[in-house]
Write a structure and sequence with these properties.
Layout: H1 9-32, E1 38-45, H2 63-70, E2 73-79, H3 84-93, H4 119-125, E3 129-135, E4 153-157, E5 169-172, E6 175-178, H5 183-197, E7 203-212, H6 220-226, H7 243-269, E8 276-282, H8 304-307, E9 308-309, E10 311-314, E11 324-331, H9 335-343, H10 359-362, E12 374-379, E13 382-387, H11 388-391, E14 414-416
Parallel strand pairs: 1-7, 1-8, 2-11, 3-4, 3-7
Antiparallel strand pairs: 2-9, 2-10, 4-5, 5-6, 8-10, 12-13, 13-14
Helix pairs in contact: 5-7, 6-7
Bound molecules: calcium ion.
Protein backbone atom coordinates (compact mmCIF):
# COMPACT_ATOMS: atom_id res chain seq x y z
CA UNK A 1 0.00 0.00 0.00
CA UNK A 2 1.29 3.32 -0.96
CA UNK A 3 1.26 5.65 2.05
CA UNK A 4 2.73 8.61 0.22
CA UNK A 5 0.84 11.72 1.17
CA UNK A 6 -1.43 13.03 -1.57
CA UNK A 7 -2.66 16.49 -0.89
CA UNK A 8 -6.32 17.02 -1.20
CA UNK A 9 -7.41 19.13 -4.19
CA UNK A 10 -8.17 22.15 -1.97
CA UNK A 11 -4.72 21.89 -0.37
CA UNK A 12 -3.14 21.84 -3.84
CA UNK A 13 -4.99 25.03 -4.65
CA UNK A 14 -3.65 26.60 -1.47
CA UNK A 15 -0.11 25.58 -2.39
CA UNK A 16 -0.62 27.03 -5.87
CA UNK A 17 -1.90 30.29 -4.41
CA UNK A 18 1.08 30.47 -2.07
CA UNK A 19 3.45 29.93 -4.99
CA UNK A 20 1.78 32.65 -7.03
CA UNK A 21 1.94 35.02 -4.07
CA UNK A 22 5.63 34.26 -3.70
CA UNK A 23 6.20 35.02 -7.37
CA UNK A 24 4.34 38.31 -7.01
CA UNK A 25 6.36 39.23 -3.94
CA UNK A 26 9.57 38.47 -5.80
CA UNK A 27 8.47 40.76 -8.63
CA UNK A 28 7.73 43.50 -6.13
CA UNK A 29 11.14 43.07 -4.55
CA UNK A 30 12.79 43.25 -7.96
CA UNK A 31 10.88 46.46 -8.59
CA UNK A 32 11.88 47.86 -5.22
CA UNK A 33 15.47 46.93 -5.98
CA UNK A 34 15.43 48.82 -9.29
CA UNK A 35 18.62 50.85 -9.65
CA UNK A 36 18.62 54.35 -8.27
CA UNK A 37 18.41 56.97 -11.00
CA UNK A 38 21.50 58.74 -12.17
CA UNK A 39 21.49 62.50 -11.65
CA UNK A 40 22.96 65.08 -14.03
CA UNK A 41 22.89 68.68 -12.82
CA UNK A 42 23.67 71.24 -15.53
CA UNK A 43 24.23 74.76 -14.26
CA UNK A 44 24.79 77.80 -16.50
CA UNK A 45 26.76 80.80 -15.27
CA UNK A 46 25.15 84.23 -15.77
CA UNK A 47 22.59 83.08 -18.30
CA UNK A 48 19.37 85.04 -17.90
CA UNK A 49 15.85 83.66 -17.90
CA UNK A 50 15.39 85.16 -21.35
CA UNK A 51 18.39 83.58 -23.06
CA UNK A 52 16.46 80.66 -24.57
CA UNK A 53 14.28 80.33 -27.61
CA UNK A 54 11.71 78.41 -25.57
CA UNK A 55 11.25 81.56 -23.48
CA UNK A 56 10.31 83.52 -26.56
CA UNK A 57 13.68 85.03 -27.45
CA UNK A 58 13.88 85.17 -31.24
CA UNK A 59 17.49 86.41 -31.11
CA UNK A 60 18.72 82.91 -30.32
CA UNK A 61 18.13 79.24 -31.08
CA UNK A 62 18.55 76.72 -28.24
CA UNK A 63 17.00 73.56 -29.69
CA UNK A 64 18.62 71.11 -27.28
CA UNK A 65 17.71 72.95 -24.08
CA UNK A 66 14.24 73.58 -25.50
CA UNK A 67 13.85 69.86 -26.20
CA UNK A 68 15.00 69.04 -22.67
CA UNK A 69 12.36 71.43 -21.35
CA UNK A 70 9.59 69.92 -23.44
CA UNK A 71 10.52 66.37 -22.45
CA UNK A 72 9.99 66.96 -18.73
CA UNK A 73 8.85 69.42 -16.12
CA UNK A 74 9.45 73.15 -15.87
CA UNK A 75 9.47 75.15 -12.68
CA UNK A 76 7.93 78.32 -13.93
CA UNK A 77 8.85 80.48 -10.92
CA UNK A 78 12.28 79.25 -9.95
CA UNK A 79 14.47 81.59 -7.92
CA UNK A 80 18.20 81.60 -7.48
CA UNK A 81 20.43 84.29 -5.97
CA UNK A 82 21.77 87.52 -7.40
CA UNK A 83 25.31 86.17 -7.87
CA UNK A 84 27.20 82.90 -8.21
CA UNK A 85 28.42 81.56 -4.85
CA UNK A 86 25.17 82.01 -2.91
CA UNK A 87 23.16 80.04 -5.48
CA UNK A 88 25.73 77.26 -5.53
CA UNK A 89 25.69 77.09 -1.73
CA UNK A 90 21.89 76.87 -1.69
CA UNK A 91 21.94 74.10 -4.28
CA UNK A 92 24.59 72.20 -2.33
CA UNK A 93 22.93 72.49 1.10
CA UNK A 94 19.18 73.06 0.68
CA UNK A 95 19.60 76.04 3.00
CA UNK A 96 19.69 79.81 2.53
CA UNK A 97 23.23 80.84 1.73
CA UNK A 98 23.88 83.04 4.81
CA UNK A 99 23.27 80.01 7.03
CA UNK A 100 26.36 78.38 5.57
CA UNK A 101 28.48 81.51 5.81
CA UNK A 102 28.34 82.40 2.12
CA UNK A 103 27.80 86.14 1.75
CA UNK A 104 29.70 87.15 -1.38
CA UNK A 105 31.83 85.97 -4.26
CA UNK A 106 35.38 86.76 -3.12
CA UNK A 107 37.68 87.50 -0.14
CA UNK A 108 36.57 84.29 1.52
CA UNK A 109 32.89 85.23 1.56
CA UNK A 110 32.27 82.50 -1.00
CA UNK A 111 33.42 79.71 1.32
CA UNK A 112 30.80 77.23 2.48
CA UNK A 113 31.19 76.51 6.19
CA UNK A 114 32.74 73.16 6.93
CA UNK A 115 29.92 72.04 9.21
CA UNK A 116 27.52 72.14 6.26
CA UNK A 117 26.76 68.85 4.52
CA UNK A 118 26.28 68.88 0.77
CA UNK A 119 24.04 67.14 -1.71
CA UNK A 120 27.16 65.33 -2.95
CA UNK A 121 27.77 64.02 0.59
CA UNK A 122 24.29 62.48 0.46
CA UNK A 123 24.70 60.83 -2.94
CA UNK A 124 28.19 59.61 -2.10
CA UNK A 125 26.97 58.08 1.17
CA UNK A 126 24.24 56.30 -0.81
CA UNK A 127 26.84 54.61 -2.99
CA UNK A 128 26.79 56.92 -5.99
CA UNK A 129 29.85 57.86 -7.99
CA UNK A 130 30.06 61.64 -7.63
CA UNK A 131 31.80 64.07 -9.97
CA UNK A 132 31.90 67.83 -10.57
CA UNK A 133 33.15 69.40 -13.79
CA UNK A 134 33.39 73.16 -13.97
CA UNK A 135 33.39 76.25 -11.77
CA UNK A 136 33.13 75.52 -8.04
CA UNK A 137 33.17 78.93 -6.31
CA UNK A 138 32.47 77.80 -2.75
CA UNK A 139 36.04 77.85 -1.45
CA UNK A 140 39.19 77.10 -3.40
CA UNK A 141 41.52 75.30 -1.05
CA UNK A 142 41.21 72.19 1.03
CA UNK A 143 39.06 71.60 3.08
CA UNK A 144 36.67 73.72 1.04
CA UNK A 145 37.70 72.02 -2.18
CA UNK A 146 35.02 69.93 -3.96
CA UNK A 147 36.99 66.74 -3.32
CA UNK A 148 36.42 67.46 0.37
CA UNK A 149 32.71 68.22 -0.06
CA UNK A 150 31.48 64.90 -1.40
CA UNK A 151 32.84 64.75 -4.95
CA UNK A 152 35.03 61.77 -5.83
CA UNK A 153 36.23 63.48 -8.98
CA UNK A 154 36.69 67.16 -9.77
CA UNK A 155 37.85 68.84 -12.95
CA UNK A 156 37.73 72.59 -13.51
CA UNK A 157 38.64 75.67 -11.49
CA UNK A 158 37.55 76.41 -7.95
CA UNK A 159 37.48 80.23 -8.03
CA UNK A 160 34.66 82.39 -9.30
CA UNK A 161 36.26 83.88 -12.36
CA UNK A 162 38.66 82.55 -14.93
CA UNK A 163 40.63 84.69 -17.36
CA UNK A 164 41.41 82.17 -20.12
CA UNK A 165 38.81 80.17 -22.01
CA UNK A 166 40.95 78.42 -24.62
CA UNK A 167 43.34 75.66 -23.56
CA UNK A 168 43.06 77.04 -20.02
CA UNK A 169 45.09 75.99 -17.01
CA UNK A 170 42.73 73.90 -14.86
CA UNK A 171 42.96 71.28 -12.16
CA UNK A 172 42.00 67.63 -11.92
CA UNK A 173 41.57 66.42 -8.34
CA UNK A 174 44.04 69.01 -7.12
CA UNK A 175 46.64 68.47 -9.84
CA UNK A 176 47.31 71.30 -12.28
CA UNK A 177 46.52 70.34 -15.86
CA UNK A 178 46.13 72.06 -19.21
CA UNK A 179 42.62 72.08 -20.60
CA UNK A 180 41.94 71.22 -24.21
CA UNK A 181 40.08 73.64 -26.45
CA UNK A 182 37.18 75.87 -25.43
CA UNK A 183 36.47 75.49 -21.75
CA UNK A 184 32.76 74.60 -21.98
CA UNK A 185 33.55 71.94 -24.58
CA UNK A 186 36.34 70.57 -22.40
CA UNK A 187 34.17 70.41 -19.27
CA UNK A 188 31.52 68.59 -21.28
CA UNK A 189 34.06 66.06 -22.53
CA UNK A 190 35.13 65.29 -18.97
CA UNK A 191 31.56 64.99 -17.72
CA UNK A 192 30.77 62.57 -20.53
CA UNK A 193 33.90 60.53 -19.72
CA UNK A 194 32.77 60.37 -16.08
CA UNK A 195 29.33 59.08 -17.06
CA UNK A 196 30.85 56.53 -19.42
CA UNK A 197 33.22 55.32 -16.71
CA UNK A 198 30.41 54.97 -14.17
CA UNK A 199 27.60 53.80 -16.42
CA UNK A 200 27.26 50.48 -14.57
CA UNK A 201 26.42 52.12 -11.25
CA UNK A 202 24.44 55.18 -10.27
CA UNK A 203 26.24 58.48 -10.67
CA UNK A 204 25.71 62.05 -9.55
CA UNK A 205 27.28 64.36 -12.12
CA UNK A 206 27.42 68.10 -11.41
CA UNK A 207 28.28 70.13 -14.52
CA UNK A 208 28.57 73.77 -13.44
CA UNK A 209 29.61 75.57 -16.61
CA UNK A 210 31.32 78.95 -16.34
CA UNK A 211 29.67 80.47 -19.42
CA UNK A 212 28.22 82.85 -20.56
CA UNK A 213 30.13 84.51 -17.70
CA UNK A 214 32.81 86.87 -19.05
CA UNK A 215 35.47 87.19 -20.42
CA UNK A 216 33.62 87.54 -23.69
CA UNK A 217 35.18 84.66 -25.51
CA UNK A 218 33.54 82.00 -27.69
CA UNK A 219 34.68 79.70 -30.48
CA UNK A 220 34.73 81.41 -33.83
CA UNK A 221 32.14 79.09 -35.36
CA UNK A 222 29.58 80.37 -32.84
CA UNK A 223 30.71 84.00 -33.04
CA UNK A 224 30.29 84.04 -36.82
CA UNK A 225 26.56 83.40 -36.40
CA UNK A 226 26.17 86.58 -34.35
CA UNK A 227 28.88 88.92 -35.53
CA UNK A 228 26.58 90.77 -37.92
CA UNK A 229 23.25 89.28 -36.96
CA UNK A 230 20.24 91.49 -36.27
CA UNK A 231 19.21 91.58 -32.62
CA UNK A 232 15.50 92.37 -32.82
CA UNK A 233 14.71 91.75 -29.15
CA UNK A 234 16.36 94.26 -26.85
CA UNK A 235 16.66 95.10 -23.18
CA UNK A 236 14.01 97.45 -21.91
CA UNK A 237 16.89 99.51 -20.52
CA UNK A 238 17.60 100.84 -24.01
CA UNK A 239 20.96 102.58 -24.17
CA UNK A 240 22.38 100.44 -21.39
CA UNK A 241 22.51 97.45 -23.74
CA UNK A 242 25.86 96.92 -25.47
CA UNK A 243 25.19 94.93 -28.61
CA UNK A 244 28.64 93.31 -28.97
CA UNK A 245 28.19 91.94 -25.44
CA UNK A 246 24.69 90.73 -26.24
CA UNK A 247 25.96 89.05 -29.38
CA UNK A 248 28.76 87.28 -27.56
CA UNK A 249 26.52 86.22 -24.65
CA UNK A 250 24.02 84.72 -27.08
CA UNK A 251 26.81 82.96 -28.99
CA UNK A 252 28.08 81.54 -25.67
CA UNK A 253 24.60 80.29 -24.77
CA UNK A 254 24.30 78.66 -28.19
CA UNK A 255 27.60 76.94 -27.46
CA UNK A 256 26.14 75.79 -24.13
CA UNK A 257 23.11 74.47 -25.96
CA UNK A 258 25.34 72.55 -28.33
CA UNK A 259 27.19 71.01 -25.37
CA UNK A 260 23.94 70.13 -23.60
CA UNK A 261 22.95 68.37 -26.81
CA UNK A 262 26.19 66.39 -26.78
CA UNK A 263 25.63 65.21 -23.20
CA UNK A 264 22.03 64.20 -23.84
CA UNK A 265 23.00 62.38 -27.03
CA UNK A 266 25.63 60.41 -25.14
CA UNK A 267 23.10 59.48 -22.45
CA UNK A 268 20.89 58.14 -25.23
CA UNK A 269 23.75 56.17 -26.77
CA UNK A 270 24.63 54.66 -23.40
CA UNK A 271 20.94 53.80 -22.89
CA UNK A 272 20.96 55.75 -19.65
CA UNK A 273 18.47 58.48 -20.55
CA UNK A 274 15.43 56.64 -19.25
CA UNK A 275 16.71 56.43 -15.69
CA UNK A 276 18.72 59.64 -15.47
CA UNK A 277 17.32 62.77 -13.86
CA UNK A 278 18.62 65.73 -15.86
CA UNK A 279 18.14 69.25 -14.54
CA UNK A 280 19.13 72.58 -16.08
CA UNK A 281 19.17 76.03 -14.49
CA UNK A 282 21.35 79.14 -14.15
CA UNK A 283 23.00 80.63 -11.08
CA UNK A 284 21.77 84.24 -11.45
CA UNK A 285 20.30 86.73 -13.91
CA UNK A 286 21.98 87.90 -17.12
CA UNK A 287 25.43 89.46 -16.88
CA UNK A 288 24.60 92.24 -19.33
CA UNK A 289 21.57 94.27 -20.29
CA UNK A 290 19.83 92.15 -22.90
CA UNK A 291 16.31 90.90 -23.46
CA UNK A 292 15.01 89.18 -20.33
CA UNK A 293 11.27 89.22 -20.62
CA UNK A 294 11.01 92.83 -19.52
CA UNK A 295 11.88 91.93 -15.95
CA UNK A 296 13.46 94.54 -13.72
CA UNK A 297 17.11 94.01 -12.81
CA UNK A 298 19.95 91.82 -13.96
CA UNK A 299 22.82 89.91 -12.32
CA UNK A 300 23.66 91.44 -8.94
CA UNK A 301 20.09 92.56 -8.28
CA UNK A 302 17.52 90.90 -6.04
CA UNK A 303 14.79 92.11 -8.39
CA UNK A 304 13.00 89.53 -10.50
CA UNK A 305 15.35 89.86 -13.46
CA UNK A 306 18.36 89.18 -11.26
CA UNK A 307 17.09 86.10 -9.48
CA UNK A 308 14.61 84.27 -11.69
CA UNK A 309 16.00 81.38 -13.71
CA UNK A 310 14.62 78.78 -16.03
CA UNK A 311 14.46 75.31 -14.49
CA UNK A 312 13.92 72.14 -16.45
CA UNK A 313 13.85 68.56 -15.15
CA UNK A 314 13.64 65.46 -17.33
CA UNK A 315 13.25 61.92 -16.01
CA UNK A 316 11.33 59.69 -18.43
CA UNK A 317 11.57 56.59 -16.23
CA UNK A 318 10.49 58.37 -13.08
CA UNK A 319 6.98 59.40 -13.90
CA UNK A 320 7.80 62.99 -14.84
CA UNK A 321 5.43 63.67 -17.69
CA UNK A 322 6.49 65.79 -20.65
CA UNK A 323 4.97 69.24 -20.59
CA UNK A 324 4.52 69.42 -16.82
CA UNK A 325 4.49 73.08 -15.80
CA UNK A 326 4.76 73.87 -12.09
CA UNK A 327 3.48 77.34 -11.22
CA UNK A 328 4.25 77.29 -7.50
CA UNK A 329 7.32 79.25 -6.49
CA UNK A 330 10.52 77.29 -5.92
CA UNK A 331 14.21 77.88 -5.67
CA UNK A 332 17.73 76.50 -5.45
CA UNK A 333 17.06 75.74 -1.77
CA UNK A 334 14.58 73.06 -2.90
CA UNK A 335 16.99 71.01 -4.98
CA UNK A 336 18.66 68.96 -2.24
CA UNK A 337 15.38 67.77 -0.68
CA UNK A 338 13.85 67.23 -4.13
CA UNK A 339 16.68 65.29 -5.76
CA UNK A 340 17.34 63.08 -2.72
CA UNK A 341 13.61 62.35 -2.54
CA UNK A 342 13.35 61.49 -6.24
CA UNK A 343 16.41 59.26 -5.97
CA UNK A 344 15.09 57.57 -2.83
CA UNK A 345 18.13 58.28 -0.72
CA UNK A 346 18.49 59.94 2.69
CA UNK A 347 20.10 63.31 3.13
CA UNK A 348 23.25 63.62 5.19
CA UNK A 349 23.33 66.06 8.09
CA UNK A 350 20.75 67.18 10.58
CA UNK A 351 20.59 70.95 10.18
CA UNK A 352 17.12 72.24 9.31
CA UNK A 353 16.48 72.69 5.60
CA UNK A 354 14.90 75.79 4.12
CA UNK A 355 13.93 74.01 0.91
CA UNK A 356 11.01 71.72 0.28
CA UNK A 357 10.66 68.46 -1.59
CA UNK A 358 9.04 69.45 -4.89
CA UNK A 359 8.48 65.90 -6.13
CA UNK A 360 4.68 65.96 -5.55
CA UNK A 361 4.47 68.99 -7.82
CA UNK A 362 6.83 67.56 -10.41
CA UNK A 363 4.96 64.27 -10.63
CA UNK A 364 1.69 66.08 -11.27
CA UNK A 365 -1.52 64.12 -10.93
CA UNK A 366 -4.23 65.39 -8.62
CA UNK A 367 -3.39 68.78 -7.18
CA UNK A 368 -1.15 67.99 -4.24
CA UNK A 369 -1.63 69.69 -0.92
CA UNK A 370 0.88 72.51 -0.98
CA UNK A 371 1.32 75.24 1.57
CA UNK A 372 1.81 78.79 0.41
CA UNK A 373 5.19 80.15 1.41
CA UNK A 374 7.53 83.09 1.08
CA UNK A 375 10.99 82.76 -0.47
CA UNK A 376 13.59 85.29 0.60
CA UNK A 377 16.50 86.59 -1.39
CA UNK A 378 19.34 88.74 -0.20
CA UNK A 379 22.54 90.21 -1.53
CA UNK A 380 24.51 92.97 0.12
CA UNK A 381 22.08 95.48 1.58
CA UNK A 382 19.09 94.31 -0.48
CA UNK A 383 16.45 91.78 0.48
CA UNK A 384 13.51 90.64 -1.60
CA UNK A 385 10.80 88.12 -1.13
CA UNK A 386 8.49 86.25 -3.46
CA UNK A 387 5.09 85.01 -2.46
CA UNK A 388 2.97 82.44 -4.14
CA UNK A 389 0.06 84.76 -4.66
CA UNK A 390 2.16 87.51 -6.14
CA UNK A 391 3.88 85.07 -8.45
CA UNK A 392 0.63 83.56 -9.68
CA UNK A 393 -0.52 86.67 -11.53
CA UNK A 394 -1.44 86.93 -15.18
CA UNK A 395 2.09 86.64 -16.48
CA UNK A 396 3.76 84.40 -18.97
CA UNK A 397 5.89 81.32 -18.79
CA UNK A 398 8.62 79.93 -20.97
CA UNK A 399 6.04 77.85 -22.79
CA UNK A 400 3.83 80.74 -23.73
CA UNK A 401 6.13 83.71 -23.59
CA UNK A 402 5.66 86.11 -26.44
CA UNK A 403 7.70 88.85 -27.87
CA UNK A 404 7.01 92.01 -25.98
CA UNK A 405 8.01 90.83 -22.57
CA UNK A 406 6.46 89.90 -19.30
CA UNK A 407 5.95 93.23 -17.69
CA UNK A 408 3.66 91.80 -15.05
CA UNK A 409 6.57 89.97 -13.49
CA UNK A 410 7.80 93.18 -11.98
CA UNK A 411 5.16 92.61 -9.37
CA UNK A 412 6.46 89.16 -8.48
CA UNK A 413 9.26 90.38 -6.27
CA UNK A 414 9.22 93.15 -3.75
CA UNK A 415 12.34 95.03 -2.86
CA UNK A 416 12.76 96.20 0.69
CA UNK A 417 15.20 98.85 1.75
CA UNK A 418 17.67 97.78 4.36
CA UNK A 419 17.08 98.89 7.86
CA UNK A 420 18.81 102.16 8.46
CA1 LIG B 1 27.05 83.52 -12.10
Amino acid sequence: MNHRFRPLPCVRRLVLCALLAAVGLAAQLRSAAAPHPNVLVILADDSGWGDYSICGNTNIKTPNIDALARAGASLDRFYVCAVCSPTRAEFLTGRYHPRGGVRGVSTGQERLNLDEKTIADAFKAAGYATGAFGKWHNGSQWPYHPNARGFDEYYGFTSGHWGEYFDPPLEHNGQLVRGKGYIADDLTDHAIAFMEKNQAKPFFCYLPYNTPHSPWAVPDSFWQRYKDAPIPMRSQEGDKETLPETRCALAMVENLDWNVGRVLKRLDELKLAENTIVIYFSDNGPNSWRWNGGMKGRKGSTDEGGVRSVFFLRWPGGGIRPGTNVREISGAIDLLPTLTSLAGIPRVGAKPLDGKDLSPLLKGGPAPAWTDRVIFNSFGPNVSRSRERLAQGSVGSCRRARRGGLQGQRQGTQLHSPAG
